Amino acid sequence: MQAIHAKNYDIVFTETGYEKLNSILKQKDYSILFVLVDSNTHENCLSQFLQNVITTLTIEIIEIEPGEEFKNLETCEGVWSALSELNADRQSLLINLGGGVVTDLGGFVACCFKRGIDFINIPTTLLAMVDASVGGKTGVDLGPLKNQIGVISNPQLVLVDPVFLETLPEEELRSGYAEMLKHGLIHSKSYWDDVTSSSYSAFKDLGDLIHKSILIKNEVVLEDPFEKGIRKSLNYGHTLGHAIESYFMESPSKTRLLHGEAIAIGMILANFISTQLTGLNAQEALDSAKAITKIYPFVQFDDSDIEAIITLLKYDKKNSHGSIYFVLLEDIGKVKLNQTVSNDLIFNAFDFYKNLWNK
Protein backbone atom coordinates (compact mmCIF):
# COMPACT_ATOMS: atom_id res chain seq x y z
CA MET A 1 0.00 0.00 0.00
CA GLN A 2 1.22 3.46 -0.89
CA ALA A 3 2.16 5.93 1.82
CA ILE A 4 -0.35 8.67 2.55
CA HIS A 5 1.03 12.16 3.00
CA ALA A 6 -0.52 14.06 5.87
CA LYS A 7 0.34 17.47 7.34
CA ASN A 8 4.09 17.30 8.13
CA TYR A 9 4.11 13.50 8.50
CA ASP A 10 3.45 10.31 6.56
CA ILE A 11 1.12 7.40 7.18
CA VAL A 12 3.03 4.31 6.08
CA PHE A 13 2.23 0.61 5.85
CA THR A 14 3.79 -2.78 6.67
CA GLU A 15 7.35 -3.47 5.44
CA THR A 16 7.96 -0.10 3.81
CA GLY A 17 6.55 1.47 6.95
CA TYR A 18 9.21 -0.16 9.09
CA GLU A 19 11.86 0.98 6.63
CA LYS A 20 10.61 4.55 7.07
CA LEU A 21 10.59 4.16 10.85
CA ASN A 22 14.15 2.84 10.92
CA SER A 23 15.23 5.66 8.63
CA ILE A 24 13.83 8.22 11.07
CA LEU A 25 15.56 6.51 13.99
CA LYS A 26 18.83 6.63 12.09
CA GLN A 27 18.57 10.20 10.84
CA LYS A 28 17.31 11.97 13.96
CA ASP A 29 19.47 12.54 16.99
CA TYR A 30 17.21 10.90 19.55
CA SER A 31 18.62 10.16 23.00
CA ILE A 32 16.33 7.34 24.21
CA LEU A 33 13.48 5.45 22.58
CA PHE A 34 10.43 4.89 24.78
CA VAL A 35 7.62 2.52 23.77
CA LEU A 36 4.24 3.03 25.45
CA VAL A 37 2.08 -0.09 25.58
CA ASP A 38 -0.84 -1.39 27.58
CA SER A 39 -0.74 -4.86 29.09
CA ASN A 40 -2.47 -6.35 26.03
CA THR A 41 -0.13 -4.87 23.42
CA HIS A 42 2.84 -5.64 25.68
CA GLU A 43 1.91 -9.31 25.52
CA ASN A 44 0.60 -9.59 21.96
CA CYS A 45 2.30 -6.91 19.85
CA LEU A 46 5.55 -5.70 21.38
CA SER A 47 7.80 -8.56 20.31
CA GLN A 48 6.45 -8.41 16.74
CA PHE A 49 7.18 -4.68 16.66
CA LEU A 50 10.68 -4.95 18.15
CA GLN A 51 11.66 -7.60 15.60
CA ASN A 52 11.29 -4.94 12.91
CA VAL A 53 13.14 -2.12 14.69
CA ILE A 54 16.78 -1.51 13.80
CA THR A 55 18.45 0.95 16.18
CA THR A 56 21.33 1.34 18.59
CA LEU A 57 19.21 3.49 20.91
CA THR A 58 18.35 2.35 24.39
CA ILE A 59 14.74 1.13 24.36
CA GLU A 60 12.60 1.52 27.46
CA ILE A 61 9.10 0.07 27.79
CA ILE A 62 6.35 1.86 29.73
CA GLU A 63 3.13 -0.07 30.37
CA ILE A 64 -0.31 1.25 31.29
CA GLU A 65 -3.57 -0.51 32.12
CA PRO A 66 -5.85 -1.26 29.14
CA GLY A 67 -9.27 0.29 28.68
CA GLU A 68 -11.05 3.61 28.31
CA GLU A 69 -11.44 3.93 32.09
CA PHE A 70 -7.64 4.46 32.33
CA LYS A 71 -7.56 7.20 29.68
CA ASN A 72 -7.20 9.97 32.25
CA LEU A 73 -4.78 12.46 33.79
CA GLU A 74 -3.84 10.01 36.55
CA THR A 75 -2.46 7.61 33.96
CA CYS A 76 -0.67 10.49 32.25
CA GLU A 77 0.96 11.42 35.53
CA GLY A 78 2.20 7.86 35.89
CA VAL A 79 3.71 7.91 32.40
CA TRP A 80 5.30 11.33 32.96
CA SER A 81 6.81 10.05 36.21
CA ALA A 82 8.16 6.95 34.45
CA LEU A 83 9.72 9.10 31.72
CA SER A 84 11.43 11.26 34.33
CA GLU A 85 12.68 8.29 36.32
CA LEU A 86 14.09 6.75 33.12
CA ASN A 87 15.99 9.96 32.32
CA ALA A 88 13.91 11.11 29.37
CA ASP A 89 14.93 14.46 27.94
CA ARG A 90 13.67 16.73 25.16
CA GLN A 91 15.46 14.60 22.56
CA SER A 92 13.61 11.46 23.58
CA LEU A 93 11.13 9.75 21.26
CA LEU A 94 7.88 8.16 22.44
CA ILE A 95 6.38 5.42 20.27
CA ASN A 96 2.74 4.68 21.07
CA LEU A 97 2.08 1.01 20.32
CA GLY A 98 -1.57 0.26 20.94
CA GLY A 99 -5.18 1.12 20.35
CA GLY A 100 -6.93 4.45 20.56
CA VAL A 101 -6.38 4.86 24.30
CA VAL A 102 -2.61 4.40 23.90
CA THR A 103 -2.27 6.66 20.84
CA ASP A 104 -4.55 9.40 22.24
CA LEU A 105 -3.00 9.37 25.69
CA GLY A 106 0.56 8.79 24.48
CA GLY A 107 0.36 11.68 22.05
CA PHE A 108 -0.91 13.96 24.82
CA VAL A 109 1.82 12.78 27.18
CA ALA A 110 4.46 13.53 24.53
CA CYS A 111 3.04 16.99 23.77
CA CYS A 112 3.20 18.02 27.43
CA PHE A 113 6.41 16.35 28.64
CA LYS A 114 9.15 18.99 28.84
CA ARG A 115 6.85 21.14 26.67
CA GLY A 116 6.92 18.60 23.88
CA ILE A 117 8.86 15.61 22.62
CA ASP A 118 8.48 13.74 19.33
CA PHE A 119 6.09 10.82 19.11
CA ILE A 120 5.15 8.14 16.60
CA ASN A 121 1.87 6.22 16.50
CA ILE A 122 1.74 2.51 15.70
CA PRO A 123 -1.94 1.56 15.98
CA THR A 124 -2.72 -2.05 16.80
CA THR A 125 -6.54 -1.96 16.66
CA LEU A 126 -8.84 -1.33 13.74
CA LEU A 127 -10.29 1.70 15.52
CA ALA A 128 -6.87 3.25 16.00
CA MET A 129 -5.75 2.47 12.45
CA VAL A 130 -8.65 4.18 10.69
CA ASP A 131 -9.36 6.91 13.21
CA ALA A 132 -7.58 7.55 16.50
CA SER A 133 -3.95 7.50 15.37
CA VAL A 134 -4.48 9.75 12.33
CA GLY A 135 -5.22 13.47 12.32
CA GLY A 136 -3.20 14.80 15.25
CA LYS A 137 -5.89 14.67 17.96
CA THR A 138 -4.46 13.73 21.34
CA GLY A 139 -6.10 13.77 24.73
CA VAL A 140 -7.73 12.09 27.68
CA ASP A 141 -11.14 11.85 29.30
CA LEU A 142 -12.33 13.90 32.27
CA GLY A 143 -14.16 11.36 34.39
CA PRO A 144 -16.70 9.75 32.04
CA LEU A 145 -16.61 12.71 29.63
CA LYS A 146 -14.84 11.80 26.42
CA ASN A 147 -11.69 13.63 25.26
CA GLN A 148 -12.28 16.79 27.28
CA ILE A 149 -8.54 17.46 27.78
CA GLY A 150 -6.14 17.46 24.85
CA VAL A 151 -4.33 19.21 22.04
CA ILE A 152 -3.97 18.79 18.30
CA SER A 153 -0.36 17.90 17.50
CA ASN A 154 0.96 15.73 14.69
CA PRO A 155 3.20 12.71 15.16
CA GLN A 156 6.45 12.22 13.28
CA LEU A 157 4.96 9.12 11.63
CA VAL A 158 2.00 6.76 11.72
CA LEU A 159 2.84 3.16 10.88
CA VAL A 160 -0.08 0.85 10.06
CA ASP A 161 0.57 -2.90 10.07
CA PRO A 162 -2.66 -4.93 9.71
CA VAL A 163 -0.89 -8.03 11.10
CA PHE A 164 -1.68 -6.68 14.57
CA LEU A 165 -5.39 -7.12 13.89
CA GLU A 166 -4.93 -10.87 14.19
CA THR A 167 -4.37 -10.38 17.94
CA LEU A 168 -7.78 -8.76 18.48
CA PRO A 169 -11.00 -10.28 19.81
CA GLU A 170 -14.01 -10.06 17.51
CA GLU A 171 -15.73 -7.30 19.49
CA GLU A 172 -12.70 -4.99 19.13
CA LEU A 173 -12.64 -5.50 15.37
CA ARG A 174 -16.35 -4.80 15.25
CA SER A 175 -15.85 -1.63 17.29
CA GLY A 176 -13.31 -0.25 14.84
CA TYR A 177 -15.53 -1.14 11.90
CA ALA A 178 -18.04 1.49 13.03
CA GLU A 179 -15.61 4.25 12.06
CA MET A 180 -15.27 2.75 8.59
CA LEU A 181 -19.05 2.66 8.26
CA LYS A 182 -19.06 6.32 9.28
CA HIS A 183 -16.53 7.12 6.57
CA GLY A 184 -18.88 5.50 4.08
CA LEU A 185 -21.88 7.54 5.22
CA ILE A 186 -20.08 10.89 5.10
CA HIS A 187 -17.97 10.24 1.98
CA SER A 188 -19.81 8.33 -0.75
CA LYS A 189 -22.36 5.66 -1.56
CA SER A 190 -19.65 3.66 -3.32
CA TYR A 191 -17.45 3.42 -0.23
CA TRP A 192 -20.48 2.71 1.96
CA ASP A 193 -21.31 -0.21 -0.36
CA ASP A 194 -17.69 -1.43 -0.23
CA VAL A 195 -17.66 -1.48 3.56
CA THR A 196 -21.10 -3.01 4.04
CA SER A 197 -20.43 -5.73 1.45
CA SER A 198 -17.25 -6.76 3.26
CA SER A 199 -16.70 -8.01 6.82
CA TYR A 200 -14.68 -6.72 9.74
CA SER A 201 -13.21 -10.21 10.18
CA ALA A 202 -12.12 -10.64 6.53
CA PHE A 203 -8.44 -9.80 6.99
CA LYS A 204 -7.54 -10.24 3.33
CA ASP A 205 -10.04 -7.52 2.36
CA LEU A 206 -9.44 -5.15 5.25
CA GLY A 207 -6.09 -3.80 4.06
CA ASP A 208 -7.52 -1.92 1.08
CA LEU A 209 -10.52 -0.70 3.08
CA ILE A 210 -8.24 0.53 5.88
CA HIS A 211 -6.15 2.41 3.33
CA LYS A 212 -9.26 4.00 1.81
CA SER A 213 -10.68 4.97 5.21
CA ILE A 214 -7.41 6.64 6.16
CA LEU A 215 -7.38 8.48 2.82
CA ILE A 216 -10.91 9.75 3.49
CA LYS A 217 -10.05 10.98 6.97
CA ASN A 218 -6.74 12.48 5.87
CA GLU A 219 -8.38 14.46 3.05
CA VAL A 220 -10.80 16.01 5.53
CA VAL A 221 -8.08 16.77 8.08
CA LEU A 222 -5.83 18.40 5.49
CA GLU A 223 -8.68 20.71 4.51
CA ASP A 224 -9.59 21.59 8.11
CA PRO A 225 -6.87 20.55 10.60
CA PHE A 226 -8.34 22.34 13.64
CA GLU A 227 -12.00 21.36 13.19
CA LYS A 228 -13.38 24.78 12.35
CA GLY A 229 -15.59 23.42 9.57
CA ILE A 230 -15.66 20.26 7.46
CA ARG A 231 -13.61 18.19 9.92
CA LYS A 232 -16.70 18.19 12.11
CA SER A 233 -18.16 15.74 9.57
CA LEU A 234 -15.89 13.07 11.07
CA ASN A 235 -18.09 13.32 14.18
CA TYR A 236 -21.14 11.88 12.39
CA GLY A 237 -22.96 9.74 14.94
CA HIS A 238 -20.59 10.86 17.70
CA THR A 239 -22.70 13.54 19.41
CA LEU A 240 -25.18 11.03 20.77
CA GLY A 241 -22.68 8.17 20.44
CA HIS A 242 -20.20 9.75 22.85
CA ALA A 243 -22.98 10.61 25.29
CA ILE A 244 -24.20 7.00 25.16
CA GLU A 245 -20.65 5.72 25.68
CA SER A 246 -20.12 8.07 28.66
CA TYR A 247 -23.47 7.15 30.21
CA PHE A 248 -22.81 3.42 30.01
CA MET A 249 -19.30 3.94 31.39
CA GLU A 250 -20.45 5.82 34.50
CA SER A 251 -23.66 3.86 35.25
CA PRO A 252 -23.01 0.91 37.60
CA SER A 253 -26.17 -0.84 36.41
CA LYS A 254 -25.05 -0.78 32.75
CA THR A 255 -22.63 -2.99 30.85
CA ARG A 256 -19.93 -0.80 29.35
CA LEU A 257 -20.12 -0.30 25.59
CA LEU A 258 -17.09 -0.22 23.34
CA HIS A 259 -16.61 3.02 21.42
CA GLY A 260 -17.76 1.59 18.10
CA GLU A 261 -20.83 -0.04 19.66
CA ALA A 262 -21.96 3.35 20.97
CA ILE A 263 -21.12 5.13 17.73
CA ALA A 264 -23.11 2.55 15.74
CA ILE A 265 -26.18 3.50 17.77
CA GLY A 266 -25.33 7.17 17.35
CA MET A 267 -25.23 6.80 13.57
CA ILE A 268 -28.64 5.10 13.48
CA LEU A 269 -30.08 7.92 15.59
CA ALA A 270 -28.41 10.54 13.39
CA ASN A 271 -29.83 8.81 10.29
CA PHE A 272 -33.36 9.19 11.59
CA ILE A 273 -32.83 12.77 12.72
CA SER A 274 -31.44 13.53 9.26
CA THR A 275 -34.69 12.37 7.65
CA GLN A 276 -36.58 14.87 9.78
CA LEU A 277 -34.27 17.88 9.47
CA THR A 278 -31.96 17.71 6.48
CA GLY A 279 -33.83 15.68 3.89
CA LEU A 280 -32.10 12.29 4.03
CA ASN A 281 -34.29 9.83 2.14
CA ALA A 282 -36.26 7.75 4.65
CA GLN A 283 -35.62 4.48 2.82
CA GLU A 284 -31.89 5.26 2.62
CA ALA A 285 -31.86 5.92 6.36
CA LEU A 286 -33.74 2.70 7.06
CA ASP A 287 -31.55 0.57 4.79
CA SER A 288 -28.31 1.93 6.24
CA ALA A 289 -29.63 1.53 9.78
CA LYS A 290 -30.53 -2.11 9.07
CA ALA A 291 -27.04 -2.70 7.68
CA ILE A 292 -25.64 -1.44 10.98
CA THR A 293 -28.00 -3.60 13.07
CA LYS A 294 -26.70 -6.69 11.28
CA ILE A 295 -23.29 -6.03 12.81
CA TYR A 296 -24.01 -4.63 16.29
CA PRO A 297 -26.21 -6.06 19.06
CA PHE A 298 -29.34 -4.35 20.34
CA VAL A 299 -29.00 -2.15 23.44
CA GLN A 300 -32.00 -1.43 25.63
CA PHE A 301 -32.87 2.18 26.56
CA ASP A 302 -35.69 3.40 28.78
CA ASP A 303 -36.87 7.00 29.11
CA SER A 304 -34.64 7.71 32.12
CA ASP A 305 -31.61 6.47 30.17
CA ILE A 306 -32.43 8.77 27.28
CA GLU A 307 -32.95 11.76 29.57
CA ALA A 308 -29.54 11.14 31.18
CA ILE A 309 -27.91 10.81 27.75
CA ILE A 310 -29.47 14.09 26.61
CA THR A 311 -28.08 15.77 29.74
CA LEU A 312 -24.58 14.61 28.79
CA LEU A 313 -24.86 16.23 25.35
CA LYS A 314 -23.89 19.59 26.83
CA TYR A 315 -20.31 18.35 27.17
CA ASP A 316 -19.89 17.62 23.45
CA LYS A 317 -16.83 19.43 22.06
CA LYS A 318 -18.72 20.73 18.99
CA ASN A 319 -21.02 22.83 21.17
CA SER A 320 -20.76 26.59 21.08
CA HIS A 321 -22.51 29.51 22.79
CA GLY A 322 -24.78 27.18 24.73
CA SER A 323 -26.08 25.35 21.65
CA ILE A 324 -25.68 21.62 20.99
CA TYR A 325 -24.68 20.98 17.40
CA PHE A 326 -25.14 17.80 15.38
CA VAL A 327 -23.63 16.58 12.12
CA LEU A 328 -26.45 15.28 9.89
CA LEU A 329 -26.84 13.96 6.33
CA GLU A 330 -28.67 15.35 3.35
CA ASP A 331 -27.67 12.21 1.47
CA ILE A 332 -25.01 9.54 1.82
CA GLY A 333 -21.80 11.42 1.13
CA LYS A 334 -23.35 14.86 1.71
CA VAL A 335 -23.14 16.25 5.25
CA LYS A 336 -24.81 19.19 6.93
CA LEU A 337 -22.94 20.74 9.87
CA ASN A 338 -24.02 22.65 12.98
CA GLN A 339 -27.60 21.41 13.20
CA THR A 340 -29.64 21.87 16.37
CA VAL A 341 -31.98 19.08 17.43
CA SER A 342 -34.89 19.16 19.87
CA ASN A 343 -35.11 16.73 22.77
CA ASP A 344 -38.44 15.44 21.42
CA LEU A 345 -36.77 14.53 18.14
CA ILE A 346 -34.02 12.71 20.01
CA PHE A 347 -36.67 10.64 21.82
CA ASN A 348 -38.26 9.88 18.45
CA ALA A 349 -34.89 8.78 17.12
CA PHE A 350 -34.56 6.30 19.99
CA ASP A 351 -38.04 4.99 19.13
CA PHE A 352 -36.83 4.49 15.56
CA TYR A 353 -33.81 2.57 16.91
CA LYS A 354 -35.98 0.36 19.12
CA ASN A 355 -38.47 -0.36 16.33
CA LEU A 356 -35.69 -1.68 14.07
CA TRP A 357 -35.51 -4.71 16.32
CA ASN A 358 -39.25 -5.25 16.47
CA LYS A 359 -39.74 -5.71 12.74
From TrEMBL:
Cofactor(s) for this UniProt protein: Co(2+); Zn(2+); NAD(+)
The residue ranges of the 3-dehydroquinate synthase C-terminal domain are: 176-319
The UniProt keyword set, sorted, is:
Cobalt, Lyase, Metal-binding, NAD, Nucleotide-binding, Zinc
Q: Which residues form the 3-dehydroquinate synthase N-terminal domain?
A: 62-174
Report the EC number(s), separated by commas if there are several: 4.2.3.4
Chain ranges passing through the membrane: none
Which domain of life does this protein belong to?
Bacteria
NCBIfam families linked: aroB
User: What is the name of this protein?
Assistant: 3-dehydroquinate synthase
